[in-house]
Amino acid sequence: xxxxxxxxxxxxxxxxxxxxxxxxxxxxxxxxxxxxxxxxxxxxxxxxxxxxxxxxxxxxxxxxxxxxxxxxxxxxxxxxxxxxxxxxxxxxxxxxxxxxxxxxxxxxxxxxxxxxxxxxxxxxxxxxxxxxxxxxxxxxxxxxxxxxxxxxxxxxxxxxxxxxxxxxxxxxxxxxxxxxxxxxxxxxxxxxxxxxxxxxxxxxxxxxxxxxxxxxxxxxxxxxxxxxxxxxxxxxxxxxxxxxxxxxxxxxxxxxxxxxxxxxxxxxxxxxxxxxxxxxxxxxxxxxxxxxxxxxxxxxxxxxxxxxxxxxxxxxxxxxxxxxxxxxxxxx
Length: 332
Ligand code: GLY
Description:
By secondary structure, the chain is α+β, with helices and mostly antiparallel strands. The chain has helices spanning about 5-15, 45-60, 65-75, 120-130, 140-150, 160-170, 235-240, 245-250, 255-270; strands at about 40-45, 95-105, 110-115, 135-140, 180-185, 195-200, 220-225, 225-235, 280-285, 290-300, 300-305, 310-315, 315-320. The chain is globular, with a radius of gyration of 18 Å.
């Protein structure tokens, strides 16, 4: 059941434990958490459908890892989503190249695929890498061959709509707006954490470009004893700071997940020579206590939170002055 306002305020105040949100103006009563399980947190408004699928899988007896994987399938199979899986914006040669990773907080297990082509569910290939090989990451043609050997079908991921848009881009060599990555984090009733991340990456990128999303510690990190964090935005600016790992480390030091996201952005902004509006960073985080939060360099970064009886799109803390693109994604 959704938390009543009174219960929510009591629990959030308890969760906050007097914590000041590092200079943000959030009142303690507004600091988000849930005691209901399983609990799923993901990037962007489109994460809500994915979370709801994760919840269904968990309620049918799936593990939190199964739930994360199957939730991400929803975004990967949605041809209207221009930044994940089928219908993703292709690279500069008109080929859709996908990045994904998955991480199990139990045993710090991880699997990843980078620049994989022609496979509908890279998150599941990443899971097979984790479950079936001695490795953590496979890339390019090797990742695709592994997927085919594992029984994944070869599919054409470039939709007619994206092909036409790519042809127009090729004529003009213009910029690409991008809805961006799904990062989905889960926590079950036994306190087990898992996370996954999947994207088609930067629209019209150089062929072979790999972003933050399949890099453990950059686009995603899960520490089974602390919490999980995921990133969306301009991968180059996430990778240079191991940013999801940093979010988790701030949670390890005792910060609330929202505060950990804010502090990570502040640290990057302090180190990076570029203006904040050029960084395009957004993070979601979830800790082992069920506290969650998000922050972005843009005002209005949306993220989705789902647990039994509750599923909503919320807005993270805006740390900078960046601009959200016309369809909700990051403007580049
Ligand atoms: N965050 C997704 C990417 O930059 O590829």
